[in-house]
Amino acid sequence: DQQVKQNSPSLSVQEGRISILNCDYTNSMFDYFLWYKKYPAEGPTFLISISSIKDKNEDGRFTVFLNKSAKHLSLHIVPSQPGDSAVYFCAASAGDNNDMRFGAGTRLTVKP
Amino acid sequence: KAGVTQTPRYLIKTRGQQVTLSCSPISGHRSVSWYQQTPGQGLQFLFEYFSETQRNKGNFPGRFSGRQFSNSRSEMNVSTLELGDSALYLCASSQSNTGELFFGEGSRLTVL
């Protein structure tokens, strides 16, 4: 049961432009959302998170937007850099719980 | 402090065999989660342990099991291996219930 969906398996953008990665979820009980970045041969690393009480969280070049009514969140990277090239996973959890569900990932390629 | 350590990093088994994977969490982290990563499926949640108790379980057959020791180290076991069990198995530890997960580099299992 894919409760978290990333419908774009890949995304390619030019260096300096904006990268927008999208994520949809089906479980309305999810109240905490995270993005992870994964390089080859490494485990995923935490990037940014957002609680359901907010609709935006910003950290440097990374901003996550949450639209609860649409059950949709997105990660914006501005400006995109070649070092941002990685697989990005969207994750969500419900309540006081470490049962975190991940999407299938989106491979971002930033071209110089 | 040391990150999450998983052993072995790579292993090859044949169908019908069983395998045990080990995970040492970050010192002080009491929650350990296991995920299976396969191409196109993203990270699939296997189970989560906290203080030696399994708190959450994903939708995997009973061939997949785990345990956690008093020092928070965790093992997962897969019995009667099938070709489809070939994947990267990731362990993650967490300090809090809804905090970020810290992932190890994974154990890549190939079933022939």
Please render the helix and strand layout as text.
The complex is a heterodimer of chains A (112) and B (112).
Chain A: E1 4-5, E2 10-14, E3 19-25, E4 32-38, E5 45-51, E6 56-59, E7 62-67, E8 72-77, E9 86-93, E10 101-102, E11 106-111
Parallel strand pairs in A: 2-11
Antiparallel strand pairs in A: 1-3, 3-8, 4-5, 4-9, 6-7, 7-8, 9-10, 9-11
Chain B: E1 5-7, E2 10-13, E3 19-24, E4 31-38, E5 42-50, E6 53-57, E7 64-68, E8 74-78, E9 87-94, E10 102-103, E11 107-111
Parallel strand pairs in B: 2-11
Antiparallel strand pairs in B: 1-3, 3-8, 4-5, 4-9, 5-6, 7-8, 9-10, 9-11
SSE order of chain B in H/E notation?
EEEEEEEEEEE
Question: How does the major sheet of chain A shape up?
Answer: 6 strands, mixed
SS class of chain B: mainly beta
Distance between the termini of chain B: 37 Å
CATH topology of chain A: Immunoglobulin-like
Going by CATH, the architecture of chain A would be: Sandwich
Question: How many helices of chain A?
Answer: 0
Structural class of chain A: mainly beta
Q: What is the top-level CATH class of chain A?
A: Mainly Beta
Shape of chain B: globular
Tell me the helix content of chain B. under 10%
Number of β-strand runs of chain A: 11
**SSE topology string of chain A:** EEEEEEEEEEE
Gyration radius from CA atoms of chain B, angstroms: 13 Å
Termini of chain A, distance in Å?
Answer: 38 Å
Greatest contact between two chains: A-B, 27 and 28 residues
- What is the 3D shape of chain A? globular
